[in-house]
Amino acid sequence: MEDTKRMFWNEPNSKSYGIPTVSIPRLSYKDPLADKLIANMKPVVLTDTNLVGSAMKWDSHYLQENLGDSPCTVYLSKTHKFKYFDANQTKKCDNDFSPPTEQIVMRFQEFVKRLKSWKEGDKRLYMQEPLNEKILKSLQLVNDILTFNWGWARMQQKQNNWGPLTTNLLMISTQGNVTPAHFDNQHNLFAQIYGYKRFILFPPEDYDKLYPHPVWHPHDRQSQVDFDYPDYTKFPKFHDIKGHEALLGPGDVLYLPLYWWHHVESLLQTHFTISLNFWYKAGPNLCLSDSTLYPLEGYQKMAIMRNVEKMLVEALRDVNEVGPLLRTILEGRYN
Ligand SMILES: C[C@@H](CC(=O)O)C(=O)C(=O)O
Ligand SMILES: [Zn+2]
User: Fold this and answer.
1) Which numbered atom of ligand 1 lies nearest the CA of 273?
2) Are 55 and 195 members of one domain?
3) What is the CATH number of the domain that holds 230?
4) Out of 127, 195, 217, 264, which could bridge 213 as a Cys pair, Cβ 3.0 to 4.6 Å?
């Protein structure tokens, strides 16, 4: 009951977490400031890229026509949260890890049927499936994708030294679903197609305020802090967090830089939301070299911390020895 009570959303249809935020700039892609922000790995909402213009007609009926019997990955959750976990890492948790969501594969038409009949109190649904040859059987859909504004996307990729495009993740979420705060190690052009999503972003240097799970944990890259019930005793620095907020509507594209934390909500204006992201691998500037500029940026320090943790897990072989060894290095010497 408590969770549902807290589910009450105040205007504009979104929960207030008591986190002070500033607005992420909303600019035309023609504005020179837009490219400057992207070049400096700062988030920006672009209002007129037409990146996925040909997908603006994608609604549940059209997608059902064109994805019909394709198998798609659907997550089910008893709460509004869809906290990602890597099922391959659960064995290191001496089985006291309980997955917060179920992951099932169902035909797209089955998913749409359940999506349409979904009501508050049912298990929530979140379809997340990469666009690839496995599901792209309709020429109409392939043509839609071919007519994305690839020229602009490729120009961003090239002029900002991003690595290759790895994924276009198609996401269809029941209203009110939340993807809790986490970071990804890829640059992201996040295109909103139907409905509205609220993003709260935090820079990489807020690592110490968001307390990510250990790198070996199934929830690696996810914040340990439950924004609905923050444990300020365990995570005191969360108290000082400040966010960067944006509301994305149909046609908007958010540039979400590599290693920037993001909390994402599907708002209640529509029964479901449709989004498509473009994930690009990090470019060469993530590796330190003679041409690296100092002092290092937050995202570079984050990469170093992750590598140190991974190296220790591999060297010690017992994840329970990592903490004591780090404390031995730190205590009375670096603190
Ligand atoms: C799945 C998505 C968040 C959302 O839209 O729920 C995300 O984290 C990303 O695109 O990096
Ligand atoms: Zn993400």
Assistant:
1) 5
2) yes
3) 2.60.120.10
4) 217
Tell me which residue range forms the domain holding 323: 298-330
Same domain, 315 and 254: no
Pocket test for ligand 1, best of 190, 254, 273 (most atoms within 8 A of CB): 190
CA of 256 to the centre of ligand 1 (A): 10
191 with 268, same domain?
yes
Which runs of consecutive H residues, i.e. helices, occur in 10-120? Answer: 32-39, 60-67, 108-117
- 310-334 as b/e, with b when 16 or more CB fall inside 10 Å? eebbeeeeebeebeeeeeeeeeeee
Ligand 1 atom closest to the Cα of residue 275 is 5
214 and 103 within one domain: yes
pLDDT digits (tens, 9 = 90+) for 86-105: 989 887 776 789 999 999 99
pTM score: 0.95
Verify that 139 and 199 share a domain, yes or no: yes
Identify whether residues 27 and 103 lie together within a single domain: yes
**Same-domain status, 273 and 224:** yes
Q: Which atom of ligand 1 is nearest to the CA of 177?
A: 6
292 part of a folded domain: no
Determine whether 255 is exposed, middle or buried from the number of CB atoms within 10 Å of its CB (0-12, 13-18, 19+): buried
Question: Which residue's CA lies nearest to atom 10 of ligand 1?
Answer: 277
Do 246 and 316 lie in one domain? The reply is: no
Q: Is 258 in the pocket of ligand 1 (CB under 6 A)?
A: no
Q: What is the pLDDT of residues 114-172, one digit of tens each?
A: 999 999 999 999 999 999 998 999 999 999 999 999 999 999 999 999 999 999 999 99
ipTM above 0.95, yes or no: yes
Count of structural domains, the chain:
2
Alpha-carbon gap, residue 128 to 330, rounded angstroms: 41
